[in-house]
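subagent[fold] <- orchestrator: predict structure for attached chain, return tokens only, no commentary.
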Amino acid sequence: MKPYLLSLALGVVVGLIYGVADVKSPAPPTIALVGLLGMLAGEHVMRFARAVLVHAAR
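subagent[fold] -> orchestrator:
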């Protein structure tokens, strides 16, 4: 259940950011795909940063 609540919370945060940026939902397909790409890139950056920090701490 926790992953679903986290996903919902992050979706609300992204919705708030869309609202501040004045991007109407549903976004045009290109904008939606670029946003998804950014989300995936951010996820991988965080994994990479954690791995680097763990390695540096050794």
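orchestrator: received. Logging for downstream: Helices lie at 2-20, 29-57. Residues 29-57 form the longest helix (29 residues).
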